[in-house]
Amino acid sequence: MIEIERKFLVTSAIFKKEAISKTRIVQGFLNTDPDRTVRIRLKGEEGFITIKGRSNKTGISRFEWEKEISPEEAEALLKLCEEGTLKKTRYEIPYGKHVFEVDEFYGPNTGLIVAEVELDFENEVFTKPKWLGREVTGETKYYNSQLSKMPFSEWRTT
Fold it and tell me: Taking all residues of the chain, what is their mean pLDDT, rounded to a whole number?
């Protein structure tokens, strides 16, 4: 399956008032090779294993395969992951015809808030909320697999 999404920085906390859900996420990576990242995620009480391929030139599209696993399996696999587990809260915000997923990071990535919107095709037009900032689609330093190795606290500009 091909995932098509665009990623943006978030400029204010107003999105929290518009959220319809809020879920705590812990995730780690069994492999962070750009050709095939393998992610383990505990999302609330659910576990997932996800494999993603290399992004295309624009950074908007890439192969993604995901399967639900038990929370116990996810917890066991998280112990095998590379160093740099990510912790974040995900908010879901419907806006226009889309749902934005906003991730507020903790730990070494505290201060980073990123929004993603999944699209049906790469050049799909969508309505942008006022709290959506600069687009960072394709900037690898904002990929979760990279944030696990080089956290926001190590490169952020104030």
Answer: 96
Q: Are 7 and 142 in contact (CB under 8 A)?
A: yes
How many beta carbons lie within 10 A of that of residue 107, not counting itself? 13
Write down the H helix ranges in the chain.
15-18, 71-78, 144-147
SS3 state of residue 65 = strand
For residues 91 and 134, the answer to whether their CB atoms sit within 8 Å is: no
pLDDT tens digits, one per residue of 78-89: 999 999 999 999
Q: Which two tokens stand for residue 12?
A: 């204010």
pLDDT of 135 reads 98
pLDDT over threshold 70, residue 44? yes
Structure tokens at 99: 């749902």
d(CA 5, CA 36): 17
User: Do residues 50 and 114 make contact, with C-beta atoms less than 8 angstroms apart?
Assistant: no
Collapsed DSSP state (helix, strand, coil) of residue 140: helix
